[in-house]
Design goal:
Elements (H helix, E strand, L loop, with lengths): L22 H14 L5 E3 L5 E3 L1 H10 L5 E3 L5 H15 L4 H14 L5 H8 L3 H13 L7 E3 L6 E3 L11 H9 L1 E5 L2 H4 L8 E6 L15 H18 E11 L3 E3 L2 E2 L2 H12 L2 E8 L20 E7 L17 H5 L7 E2 L5 E2 L1 H11 L7 E3 L18 H11 L5 E4 L6 H8 L4 E6 L2 H13 L1
Parallel strand pairs: 1-3, 6-17, 7-8, 7-16, 11-15, 16-17
Antiparallel strand pairs: 1-2, 4-5, 8-12, 9-10, 11-12, 13-14
């Protein structure tokens, strides 16, 4: 049973004025404390202010119960306020706007903190922090963060703006007219699209067990979402159409991978068809979690490009051939038949002539595409696929005048790739209105 107290109640001032609890959350907290008492101690600063637990403190006082306390020592004022926001972000069912407001408040107080430091202190994804920082910088509320290269100390802005493309007015209007942007959940909107109306579905979906500003999906929830999307996209695609899904495996903990990507690919291959295993290697990937000397893992630099569709789907290999360098084109190759260690034979001269005749060599199934320059103009979207990756797939799989569908279009990179390479129509679905507006601006900018 909870312990009651007869001593005089203390007065505590909160460190921050935070959004009030929703009525149902407050009622639930009261009921829990009435039965079990205050289980989680309230956190106090050394001078007696409440970092976390004002509601628990007030309810315990009203019921006459003891309230355990824990004093946090050795923290700076910035760290104290960041801790208060972090605990509320983790425990409360805050709306997206409330979560972004807490991040914005922290950035206003500590604009010199890096995005990753703010994210670590608040317990949110650093891409969310980058997105909020961009909004505040654009509004003049905090200064634009400048990065420096280690080599020549030249500064450059933390985000890249969209390049200016000089197009005739009629061409810009045609691109805008060819674009359909739908606001809402793709599970609700995909069924409204007519069957056999798209040629290529291309998207980078949210991943499970990753915290983003738009929420966090469990692995079962993610599988339910993706199975619905795959089935609906298959219905919307033409008989010759195919789908490419960009995925990034992640850890359950360092040294133990989550198995959702493998489970998804196995299900999709059986449900539909895996045309070929294709991967995207990021040569400029930075060292990731676990690459420190103590843990000793390898750098993560490969993403899956899961290519689904009929075995005879439309594909234009000629459009993505790799142009060989001049030394390769001028070098003479022997015509004699050679056998390799495996016993397979080849005539290198014939292979060389075939590449010259076709105008290039066939790309491998591991695309080497750097993340930089990324996708200029995406305005801080937390998970952007580089434009070059999307353009490769559009050139390869989209017939002239075809339709590109992106059920998780974000800031519209897949749509731009389609418009840049001959798409007659592009369709994007996005549930966050601010990204719909970014995509619309990018299309209008050309």
């Amino acid at each position: 049973m909870p312990t009651t107290k007869k001593t005089r109640q203390k007065k505590y001032a909160p460190v921050l004025q935070l959004p009030p609890l929703a009525p149902d959350e407050l009622d639930g907290l009261k009921a829990s404390i009435a039965v079990h008492g205050v289980v989680v101690p309230i956190l106090l600063t050394e001078d007696g202010r409440v970092i976390d637990g004002s509601n628990r403190r007030a309810i315990a006082d009203a019921l006459g119960y003891e309230c355990p306390e824990s004093v946090q020592k050795g923290l700076t004022e910035d760290e104290i306020r960041a801790l208060a926001r972090s605990l509320n972000l983790a425990r409360r069912h805050l709306s997206r706007e409330q979560r972004r407001q807490l991040v914005a408040d922290q950035l206003r107080e500590t604009p010199a903190w890096s995005n990753r430091r703010v994210a670590k202190n608040l317990g949110v994804d650093h891409h969310t922090v980058a997105s909020v920082r961009l909004e505040l910088s654009a509004g003049g509320e905090i200064p634009q963060v400048e990065r420096t290269t280690g080599r020549d100390e030249k500064s450059y802005p933390a985000t890249r703006s969209a390049p200016v493309v000089h197009r005739p007015p009629e061409e810009r209007q045609a691109r805008i007219a060819a674009t359909t942007l739908l606001h809402g959940d793709c599970r609700d909107l995909l069924p409204t699209l007519p069957p056999a109306s798209a040629d290529l579905a291309l998207f980078d979906p949210p991943y499970p067990e990753v915290s983003r500003e738009y929420g966090r999906l469990t692995e079962p929830d993610w599988h339910d979402l993706m199975r619905a999307v795959v089935r609906e996209c298959r219905r919307v695609l033409k008989p010759s159409g195919s789908m490419v899904v960009v995925l990034q495996p992640n850890y359950e903990r360092l040294g133990r991978m989550r198995l959702w990507p493998w489970e998804f690919v196995l299900w999709a291959a059986k449900e539909w068809n895996l045309i070929q295993d294709v991967y995207w290697h990021v040569p400029d990937a930075l060292p990731s979690a676990g690459t420190d000397r103590d843990t000793g893992l390898l750098k993560t630099s490969v993403k899956w490009n899961v290519w689904l569709g009929p075995a005879d789907c439309y594909r234009n290999q000629q459009a993505v051939l790799r142009t060989p360098s001049e030394p390769v084109t001028t070098r003479q190759r022997p015509e004699d038949l050679k056998a390799g260690p495996s016993g397979r034979t080849r005539r290198t001269g014939r292979m060389h002539r075939a590449a010259l005749e076709r105008g290039g060599s066939v790309p491998p199934n591991c695309l080497v595409i750097p993340k930089n320059p990324g996708s200029p103009g995406s305005e801080g979207h937390p998970a952007v696929t580089p434009l070059a990756v999307c353009e490769f797939w559009v050139k390869y799989l989209l017939p002239p005048g075809g339709t590109v569908l992106s059920p998780f279009c974000g800031s519209g990179t897949e749509l731009l790739a389609g418009l840049n390479h001959g798409a007659g129509n592009v369709i994007g679905i996005e549930r966050e209105m601010r990204y719909i507006e970014i995509a619309r601006r990018r299309v209008a900018a050309g």
